[in-house]
Amino acid sequence: MIALLAGVSGAWADTADVTYQIVYNGSNSISATVNDLEIGAALSLPNQLKRGYIESYTFYSDAACTAGNEVTTVTASGDVTVYVKAVLSASCPITFSTDANPIWYVLTGKNNDDWCLYADGTNIKASQDVPSTDAHKWAFIGNPFAFKLKNNNGKYALASEDNNGFKFRKFLTCLF
Fold it and tell me: H helices within the chain, ranges in order?
């Protein structure tokens, strides 16, 4: 394990602006920057990048997350990028998929399994109907850091609230 970031010199000799770039399944995802970290400070993933069901986060100095290039502390000043390899836990209750190969789910309420989500035109609604149509099937397109919820009728959902007060964004927050 190395503790040296291939750094770029900056204006502040004793601090670094560290960008944490999430790498999931070999591809870059989201990132966040922490400013003015002192040289020698331990690397620590910012809270806004943490996700439930991630088994491990490992810091690397290279975008390929090559074994032997793990890093633990800030040792270079200026603008530094740390690549963070994220590994999804086997206990994650869903499988993320692609538009080309969706894996369909029926989504029920967290506290009341009798309720399920469905798409009604441009609205997302909660219903106690038996989920029997494509409107009741959803796929998680993307990865734990950036995904869209796609209905089997081809529409995407980001956030909504139906007349019964079902908070869709809150539902997604409970997952991750």
Answer: 168-175
Q: Could you give the CA distance from residue 132 to residue 137 in angstroms, rounded to a whole number?
A: 9
Compute the Cα dihedral for 84, 89, 93, 97 and give only its sign. positive
Per-residue pLDDT band at 74 (split at 50, 70, 90): very high
* 24 neighbors 91 (Cβ within 8 angstroms): no
Residues 6+ away with beta carbon under 8 Å from 113: none
Largest CA distance in the chain: 63
d(CA 74, CA 85): 17
Query: By the 8 A CB rule, do 78 and 86 touch?
Result: no
Give per-residue pLDDT as tens, 111-125.
555 677 767 666 666
Q: Identify which of 122, 109, 113, 121 has the alpha carbon closest to the alpha carbon of residue 164.
A: 109
CA angle (106 as vertex; 105, 109 as ends), nearest 5: 125
Which residue in 81, 79, 72 sits closest to 12, CA to CA?
79
pLDDT digits (tens, 9 = 90+) for 53-63: 999 999 999 99
Rounded to whole angstroms, the Cα distance separating 95 from 147 reads: 11
Q: Which residue in this structure is represented by tokens 């035109």?
A: 121
